[in-house]
Amino acid sequence: xxxxxxxxxxxxxxxxxxxxxxxxxxxxxxxxxxxxxxxxxxxxxxxxxxxxxxxxxxxxxxxxxxxxxxxxxxxxxxxxxxxxxxxxxxxxxxxxxxxxxxxxxxxxxxxxxxxxxxxxxxxxxxxxxxxxxxxxxxxxxxxxxxxxxxxxxxx
Length: 155
Description:
This protein has helices at 3-6, 26-45, 51-71, 110-115, 141-154; strands at 14-16, 73-78, 81-86, 92-97, 101-107, 117-126, 129-139.
C-alpha cells in the first residue's frame, strides 16, 4: 500500500495521481545502452584493460539509481491535501493542505513544451514564509493543472 493510501483520513479521497512522463527514464535507459555498448566493445576487441568494464558498471549503477528515484516517488492530490513523497529507505515528503493553497503554476522548459512534460508547482503562504511542493516531470502539465483546479474546487 502507498503512503498516501496509508495516511488517508476518514473522509479523505484521492482525486488525482499524476502520471510521470517517459522523459524521466531517458537518461537511465541511455546509460544502460551505453553500458551494453562498452561491454560489447570490450568483448569483441578482447581488451585486457578493464577500464571499459568499470565505466559500464558505473553507468549501470547510475541507471539503477535513476530508475529507483523515479519509482520511489509518490504524488497525489486528495480532497484535503497535496502530497509528495520520495525516497527508498529514508523517505522525505511534503504535504500541503488544500485550504492553504495560494497558487498552482506550470513550469515548462522549451523541451518540456515540445514533448509535453513539465512541473506542477503548488504554493502556499505560511507563517515561516512561502511553501512550495513541486510535482516534477509530469505528463500533460497544463491539462493536469486544470484537472487539479477543477477537482479541488468541486470538493
